[in-house]
């Protein structure tokens, strides 16, 4: 596989199951593609600076931060130590790691970025797929070998990077994701229909209609304040329809082609929520079985957005694995 250069959240619970192993995500957003609007391919640096304070609201105190624009992508680096790259899911900006960055930056040089068309990164012209998103990650690392944490679609990016540029990947943490291919298990039809029915709603209403499915049943109601905080972060810099469409197309191409994860030599930790409605847990189990050097952790009664639903437990699992 070759990579092409682009053209341009809570109280921890302890009831978990751990299995040793030698999984398939489905960011199955609605099949209907939305109308695309023409976007200008430029970055207004002074505008990005004006909103930088809110974008960095989660940064750890007392740690040196670096913020830069890399070929249009908004990149942040926090802390010192071995590089640790965090890659979030479909349509998410780097806000998704708001409860990981302050913790991980105490031990690692923690790198987060807004993928194409999300957060403070502009919507690019032309189509792109998971290989191009993986090349973005490689460009950000700039030759540095890193531990890579990939969530959902970010897991596809991490797996693709590990295959194409193994020298850049020290280890993998793969959460709520899978390897694609014909054996993948799709999300339930009623969940897919809920996303389809929400098309066209304003960002806040769309989030309220769909986000509950990304957590375990009842979690948004029992953690109402935290859920509202997550919704607010999501709509601060709303992901446009063009980006959701492009990410969805990229994911479906990944599902069709699959990923030869058996060729990945880097040690991996696969974490999956037992109650995941977006990427059913069978996909995580399968991924861990196929990887040559993986440990599998299945979290009982957890949903898809693991790092937002139970950040303390998620952070502990990741740090225990990396250290």
Description:
The protein has helices spanning 45-50, 52-55, 101-104, 130-141, 153-164, 189-197, 203-210, 219-222, 224-236, 241-257, 281-290, 306-309, 311-322; strands at 16-21, 65-70, 73-78, 83-87, 109-113, 146-151, 169-175, 268-273, 294-299. The protein has 323 residues and is of the alpha/beta class. It has a single domain (16-322), classed as Alpha/Beta hydrolase fold, catalytic domain (Rossmann fold, 3-Layer(aba) Sandwich). Strands 1-9-8-7-6-4-5-3-2 form a 9-stranded mixed β-sheet, sandwiched between helices. The chain is globular and about 45 Å long. It starts with 15 loop residues before the first strand and ends with a helix.
Distance between the termini: 30 Å
Total number of helices: 13
Secondary-structure element pattern, one letter each: EHHEEEHEHEHEHHHHHEHEHH
CATH topology: Rossmann fold
- Counting helices, strands and paired strands, the structural category is alpha/beta
- What is the CATH-assigned architecture? 3-Layer(aba) Sandwich
Strand order of the largest sheet: 1-9-8-7-6-4-5-3-2
Output the CATH homologous superfamily. Alpha/Beta hydrolase fold, catalytic domain
What percent of residues adopt helix (DSSP H or I)? 25-40%
Beta-strand portion reads: 15-25%
| Rg over C-alpha atoms, rounded to the nearest angstrom | 18 Å
Number of domains: 1
Mean pLDDT: 84
- Which term fits the overall shape? globular
- State the low-pLDDT regions, or none: 1-62
- Let me know the number of strands: 9
């Amino acid at each position: 596989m070759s990579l092409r250069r682009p053209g341009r959240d809570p109280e921890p619970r302890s009831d978990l199951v751990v299995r040793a192993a030698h999984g398939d995500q489905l960011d199955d957003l609605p099949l209907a593609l939305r109308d695309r609007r023409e976007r200008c391919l430029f970055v207004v640096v002074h505008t990005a600076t004006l909103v930088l304070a809110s974008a960095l609201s989660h940064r750890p105190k007392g740690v040196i931060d670096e913020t830069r624009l890399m070929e249009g992508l908004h990149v942040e680096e926090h802390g010192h130590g071995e590089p640790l790259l965090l890659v979030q899911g479909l349509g998410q900006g780097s806000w998704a790691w708001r409860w990981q960055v302050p913790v991980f930056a105490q031990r690692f040089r923690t790198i987060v970025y807004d993928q194409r068309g999300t957060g403070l990164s502009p919507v690019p012209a032309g189509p792109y797929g998971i290989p191009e998103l993986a090349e973005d990650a490689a460009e950000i690392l700039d030759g540095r070998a890193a531990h890579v944490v990939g969530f959902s679609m970010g897991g596809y990016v991490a797996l693709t990077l590990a295959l194409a540029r193994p020298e850049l990947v020290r280890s993998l943490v793969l959460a709520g994701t899978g390897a694609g291919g014909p054996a993948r298990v799709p999300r339930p039809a009623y969940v897919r229909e809920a996303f389809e029915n929400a098309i066209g709603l304003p960002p806040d209403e769309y989030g309220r209609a769909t986000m509950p499915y990304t957590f375990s049943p009842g979690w948004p109601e029992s953690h109402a304040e935290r859920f509202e905080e997550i919704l607010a972060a999501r709509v601060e810099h709303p992901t446009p329809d063009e980006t959701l469409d492009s990410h969805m197309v990229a994911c479906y191409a990944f599902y069709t082609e699959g990923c030869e994860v058996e060729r990945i030599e880097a040690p991996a930790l696969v974490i999956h929520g037992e109650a995941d409605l977006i990427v059913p847990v069978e996909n995580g189990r399968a991924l861990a079985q196929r990887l040559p050097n993986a440990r599998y952790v299945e979290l009982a009664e957890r949903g898809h957005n693991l790092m937002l639903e139970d950040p303390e437990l998620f952070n502990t699992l990741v740090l225990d694995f990396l250290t």
